[in-house]
Amino acid sequence: MVLWGWVTLSSLLFSCERSYPLQPISEIPDYFPKPFPDDSLNKSTPQRVLLGKELFFETQLSADGKVSCASCHNPKLWYSDKVAHSKSAFADDSTIRNAPPIFNLAWKKPFFWDGGIKNLESLSFAPLQSHSEMRADLAKQIPFLNRKVAYRVLARQAYNSDTINSQVLGRALAVFIKSITSYNSKWDKVQQGKSAFSAYELQGKTIFERKCQSCHKPPLFYDNKHHNIFLDTDSLPKDHEKIFYGRYRITYNAEDIYAYSTPSLRNLVFTAPYMHDGRYKTLEEVLTFYEDGCRPIHHLKSNEKAPLLAFLKTLTDSTVVK
Amino acid sequence: MKFNLKIAALAIALSGLWGCGKDSGTTSNPEFGTVKVVINHKVNNQPLVLSTSAIPDSLGNSVVPNAMSFYLSNLTLNGTKPFVENLSYHLVRVSATTDSSVFLVKNVPTGTYTGLDMSFGVDSVANGRTDFVGDLDISNHMSWNWDTGYKFLLLEGSYVAPGQPNQGVVYHLGRQEAFGKINWSGFNGAELKVSNEKTTTLRLIANYDKLFEGVNVKTNFMVMGPGVPNKSVAQNFQNKVIGLVGVGNPQ
């Protein structure tokens, strides 16, 4: 028994070499608001972050054993995946919406483009179970995890549980996701008095403050609200449980038709494609959309786009990339 | 700060703690007993048989369910000293092989009870998250993973109308507008007695004849969100489907 334990443990340990410098949430800059408090049932601890990290990279949580959370939220790609629609397990389906980068979610609520997820602890079950994503049958996938001694050890350490179960799974992933932060951009350095904007960036900053920041509020550059920016104006199909109707499918409030969550603009340059469905491949396309004067939103002038883009580039935080 | 699975697991392994799950034994306590709740599923005075039985709708046509489940929760036994069940969420599944469902209410203080309160669905506290185990475990496929909350009642099947091709039917009732209280002030003239020696049986009936009363399933064949069909079917379940048969006290 002991020998079996060592053999299993050793084989698992050798396959788990992953370095990940976690940024303690206590080190957030003083110009950030306080994050939402930890869930009373799921306080953040180093052990829980560690377990969540391992589960985040675990491909055996998908139906074909090839897709993990990190497949679409790749730390090397600013926790996104550079495609408009991510491929599912077995690569025979794909998402309808774009996988957003997932940093600074400790300040966010609710979650998903339509705000349908009320808390981080419930968030992961959607991509895990969705046919167009990991397609996991938790009743099958979770017992598989529990065959690994190290997972049982970590479950014991983190949650005083003898095994991984769906509760441990959801909560550990929540704590890990909450630990992913971004606050080391040039914009942050300027706030800390360690750098200064160029004249051109300052010009862009002025434009940003007049035309963008009412929704993309610094320092997080989102507002935890949903807005219809008139991307979708035609009658769209009601299939896929009204997924094309934005927040309306959650609230059934007519004002929420085609309204989507405001994305953060941090690391924007590296998180293409853009919008809830990834329809725009470049930032130039996005800014051109805002240039169109036909929609009742803030309009950009042609000569404002370049300085604005220069300012947006100051939101890049290279330390996020692992 | 840097965490590493290798170090963490190795440390625990060295301390001899791997895989050493202990079974927490239970001891019989003379002050507590168990109530077995038995629910018989019927339609047209016959046992409900999945994929066969026909539940009428308001147009006189019918719904043949292939799958059916619902939540009963927040069970309270009333009496001189009421008993409020802790973490009281019971998933009731209609089985393909038997016309009854059973769940146990454990650790009920011995004594006599005169009435029962419970709820249809899941209360707003538990309905605000899905990271639970047991009957609320998300792997039971009774929750929406894209719109946090539970399906209080799941019915999937076919709509059958003469001269028309069968139509798929999906009723996933939920949200707080579908949540409701169920109350019986007595047990059909009897009292429910809980003993520590034998299990007491509480018999309920789910008679689905009026589940779709006032609901046009032909035009509302897919109900997965708020609205009149969601509320109406939920209220029908609370007021016209679920009923009390009686108690089987220990002899």
Give structural notes.
The complex is a heterodimer of chains A (322) and B (251). Chain A contains 14 helices and two strands; from the N terminus they run ααααααααααβααβαα. The two termini of chain A are 38 Å apart. With 322 residues, chain A is mostly helical. The longest helix of chain A is centred in the N-terminal third of the chain and has 13 residues. In chain A, α10 crosses α14. Chain B is mainly β and 251 residues long. Chain B has one domain. In chain B, the strands form three sheets. In chain B, strands 3, 4, 5, 6, 9, 10, 11, 12, 13 and 16 form a ten-stranded mixed β-sheet that branches. In chain B, strands 1, 2, 7, 15 and 17 form a five-stranded mixed β-sheet that branches. In chain B, β4 and β5 form a beta hairpin. The termini of chain B are far apart. The chains are: A mainly alpha (322), B mainly beta (251). At the A-B interface, α1, α2, α5, α6 and α7 of A face α1 and β10 of B.
Secondary structure elements and pairings:
The complex is a heterodimer of chains A (322) and B (251).
Chain A: H1 2-14, H2 46-56, H3 69-72, H4 120-123, H5 125-129, H6 138-146, H7 149-159, H8 166-178, H9 186-191, H10 199-211, E1 226-227, H11 239-242, H12 248-251, E2 260-261, H13 283-291, H14 305-313
Helix pairs in contact in A: 2-7, 2-8, 10-14
Chain B: H1 5-14, E1 32-43, E2 46-47, E3 55-56, E4 62-78, E5 83-84, E6 89-93, E7 100-109, E8 111-113, E9 115-120, E10 143-144, E11 149-160, E12 167-174, E13 180-184, E14 192-194, E15 200-207, E16 222-223, H2 228-241, E17 242-248
Parallel strand pairs in B: 1-15, 12-16
Antiparallel strand pairs in B: 1-2, 1-7, 3-4, 4-5, 4-6, 4-9, 4-11, 8-14, 9-13, 10-11, 11-12, 15-17
Structural class of chain B: mainly beta
Number of strands of chain B: 17
CATH architecture of the largest domain in chain A, by name, is Orthogonal Bundle
- SS elements, strand count of chain A: 2
Could you tell me which chain pair has the largest interface and how many residues each side has? Answer: A-B, 57 and 34 residues
CATH class of the largest domain in chain A: Mainly Alpha
Order of helices and strands of chain B: HEEEEEEEEEEEEEEEEHE
Determine the strand fraction of chain B and express it as a percent band.
Answer: 35-45%
Shape of chain A: globular
Main sheet properties of chain A: 2 strands, antiparallel
Helix content of chain B: under 10%
Find the CATH topology of the largest domain in chain A. Answer: Cytochrome Bc1 Complex, Chain D, domain 2
Following the backbone from N to C, one meets helices and strands of chain A in this order, namely: HHHHHHHHHHEHHEHH
End-to-end separation of chain A in angstroms reads 38 Å
Rg of chain A, alpha carbons: 21 Å
Helix segment count of chain A?
A: 14
- Helix fraction of chain A, binned, reads 25-40%
Task: Name the CATH homologous superfamily of the largest domain in chain A.
Answer: Cytochrome c-like domain
Low-confidence stretches of chain B: 1-27
Can you give the mean pLDDT of chain B? 90
